[in-house]
Design goal:
The protein is about 5% helix and about 60% strand. By secondary structure, it is mostly beta strands. It has one domain.
Length: about 190
């Protein structure tokens, strides 16, 4: 579960990256809006990116746990994160990206990069399936239990995104034996 929270945190951070034209003034406003993805196992992530203020975007996240695996039916749990992510755009650059545009493939692509951060965030859960289990916020649906750490520690990371045909590919900067690359952590569709 900690890996899921870490990946989710990184995905949140990565979604904050912005830009796209290579101009001195990044076109951050094209990222403003709502995005969503279903993990295929009851959980739909919702991301709201606000209009930029200068080079900074603010991103808010919440998740819903649904009755059925394909994210349909009744909502039994709502996970809410108390702190938004802020992102400071730095540049648009060509970089090696793993997972764009096809999952499990390597490509070189223009990616909008920057530094994102989140202050310590608490996670709350509401809904008919909401429970606190061992200090974690959980939602129960049938025989499955979905939990989130009740506190996400403050974090700063390097991240980037690519917006292509209404699909947002969010990635985090990694360092491998072949050098730095961006690893796609999340794929979300603009709503």
């Amino acid at each position: 579960m900690k890996k899921y929270i870490a990946a989710l945190s990184l995905s949140i951070l990565a979604l904050a990256a912005c830009g796209g034209s290579g101009n001195d003034t990044p076109p951050l406003s094209r990222y403003a809006g709502d995005y969503a993805s279903c993990d295929g196992d009851h959980v739909r992530q919702f991301i709201g990116i606000s209009q930029p203020v200068g080079n900074i975007l603010t991103i808010k996240l919440h998740e819903r746990v649904y009755q059925y695996a394909e994210c349909s039916g009744a909502v039994v749990g709502y996970f809410n994160y108390s702190s938004p992510v802020t992102f400071s755009y730095s540049q648009t650059k060509d970089a090696v990206v793993y997972g764009y545009p096809t999952w499990n493939k390597w490509n070189t692509a223009a990616i909008d990069a920057g530094t994102s951060s989140i202050s310590t965030s608490t996670v709350s859960v509401t809904g008919s399936g909401a429970k606190m289990i061992d200090g974690k916020a959980c939602a129960v649906v049938g025989s499955k239990t979905f939990c989130r750490e009740s506190t996400i520690p403050a974090n700063t990371d390097s991240a980037g995104i690519i917006l292509f045909n209404g699909i947002l590919y969010s990635a985090t900067l990694k360092f491998g034996t072949g050098g730095p690359y961006y690893n796609v952590d999340s794929i979300d569709v603009k709503q």
